[in-house]
User: Fold this.
Amino acid sequence: MAGRVEAKLAELGLSLPEVVPPLASYVPAVRSGRYVFTAGQLPMVDGTLPLTGKVGAEVTPEEAKELAARCALNGLAAIKSVAGDLDRVVRVVKVVGFVASAPDFTAQPGVVNGASELLGEVLGDAGVHARSAVGVAVLPLDAPVEIEFQAELGE
Assistant:
């Protein structure tokens, strides 16, 4: 039976995807004590990137914001894989967003809002977090955005 968080996802028309398999030598998420740290999550959908390229050039900021939300959804799946139940998340502590940016693109925070807003909608107050939004030259597989985050678990 789905818990509160997965019921909220369903209410939003979303469901947890399968955990995205690693692209190299790492695991999708690691638990250390009460904390779960995700690896960087790309906006993979069924094993592929829906868009590639730089935000502000080949990818619009609006498209990139949607991709950032997908990264957060993939991250929630990774957290569930080590926590067992997303209802155990008591706080998303920190989100770091990387945006592959055209040289003149400076709206990285607006792109990463896609992840932040999804976490807030799904987790409520537990989804409120500290955050960094960083522009980078290129990301793996030419992804426009990559999100990683840390969450605290309750008992």
